Structure formats: C-alpha cells, structure tokens
Amino acid sequence: MSVDQKMDSSRRTLLLATSAAGGVAAVATAVPFVASLTPSERAKAAGAPVEADVSKLKPGEMMTVEWRGKPVWILRRTPEMLASLDKTDEKVSDPNSVKPQQPEYAKNKHRSIKPEYLVTVGICTHLGCSPSEKFKVGADSGMGADWPGGFLCPCHGSIFDLAGRVYSSMPAPDNLEVPPHQYLADTKILVGDDGKA
Ligand code: FES
C-alpha cells in the first residue's frame, strides 16, 4: 500500500469514526479537515463566489453549481417558460417578491437580472429538502392538466413556479432564495458576489 493510500484509508477511518460518534466529534475534526485543504479549496469552503459558464446551457435546461455548500440552480428559460409566469401570478403567495429574500435586482416577476436566466438556491424554504424539476407541462407532468411547469418539493408537497415563487397555502412559507450574483460576461455568472457588498 502506498503512503497516499495509507493516508486515505486512515482519514476515511477517522471520518467514519467521527460521523458515528455524532456532532461533537465532527466539530472537533473540522479544523484538521480545513487545514488539509489547498488555499483555493479553503476559500471555496468559506463561501467564495463561484463562476458559472452558461454558454452550453440550452433553452429549457438547468445546471447546478455549488456555493457555500448549497446547490444553486441556473435555469435558462424558454419564451414559453417565461410566459407561464403570467399564468402563475395569481396562484403564488408573493408574486412581486416583496418579502426581503432576494437582492433588489431580483424583485421582479421573473426574479432575475436577465429574464432568460433564473439563478436560485435549490433548497425548499420549508424544511430544506431539494425540490424536483417538473418542467413538462400539462397532464404529462403528472401534476395535472393545467400544470404550467415548475418545481415540486417531494417532502411535503410545496410547489414553486419557474421563477421559484411558492404557490399559496403551501408548507413552504417563502419563495426560493435568490443568491447575490452578477454577470461577468454575457454567458458567465458570478454566484455569491454582486459587487454591492
Ligand atoms: S421541505 Fe419542502 S415542503 Fe417541506
């Protein structure tokens, strides 16, 4: 067994032992784990902004980047997807994004800087499950004949439209969070920093 393999297996044993031992032990191992990261990995773990190249994203497709340990979705909406927001306006609880849970530039119907791209944290605002994409419309979606596309949280059934706006009377109290972000170029998004801090 090589030295690297030995280190790997001993670290694995340590991780297994500490995760079995519970939260206190996990905190105790946090420092050595962080110390073992490279400087750029350390910065990432601490919440450094993340660049996303959306040049390959086709209309209707979604990609995920990780920021501060959270999944951040970037959905490139088609004109039909954007038009669906007119239909869901009256069904969602905060259609104009009045609640203070997104930056100023996302306080609009599409909740984004550019209408085409939705950038949102893919974590349900109820108890933190990850909603599933339900982009098919109509009966094929399994969500009902009048389903206009959106997201479904499988845990307790909260539904969100294609701007991450939660439907009224759902367990989730709020829309999906829009993280700070900015465009570095036409197809390059910096998630985690909008240059306003
Ligand atoms: S965690 Fe999403 S509905 Fe409960």
Automatic annotation (TrEMBL):
Predominant localisation class: membrane
Residues in domain Rieske? 82-190
Which transformation does this protein catalyse, written as a reaction?
a quinol + 2 Fe(III)-[cytochrome c](out) = a quinone + 2 Fe(II)-[cytochrome c](out) + 2 H(+)(out)
How is the protein disposed in the membrane?
Answer: Single-pass membrane protein
Q: Where in the cell is it found?
A: Cell membrane
Q: Where is this region: Disordered?
A: 87-109
**Known SUPFAM superfamilies for this protein?**
ISP domain (SSF50022)
What does this protein need as cofactor? Answer: [2Fe-2S] cluster
Gene Ontology terms: cellular component? plasma membrane
The free-text cofactor remark is: Binds 1 [2Fe-2S] cluster per subunit.
Quote the EC number. 7.1.1.8
Q: Which GO terms describe its molecular function?
A: 2 iron, 2 sulfur cluster binding; metal ion binding; oxidoreductase activity; quinol-cytochrome-c reductase activity
Alphabetized UniProt keyword annotations: 2Fe-2S, Cell membrane, Disulfide bond, Electron transport, Iron, Iron-sulfur, Membrane, Metal-binding, Oxidoreductase, Translocase, Transmembrane, Transmembrane helix, Transport
The record ties this protein, via PROSITE patterns, to: RIESKE, TAT
Function, as annotated, reads: Component of the ubiquinol-cytochrome c reductase complex (complex III or cytochrome b-c1 complex), which is a respiratory chain that generates an electrochemical potential coupled to ATP synthesis.
Family of this protein? Belongs to the Rieske iron-sulfur protein family.
Cite any additional comment in the entry. Answer: The Rieske protein is a high potential 2Fe-2S protein.
Subunit comment for this entry? The main subunits of complex b-c1 are: cytochrome b, cytochrome c1 and the Rieske protein.
Entry protein name: Ubiquinol-cytochrome c reductase iron-sulfur subunit
Gene name, per UniProt, is petA
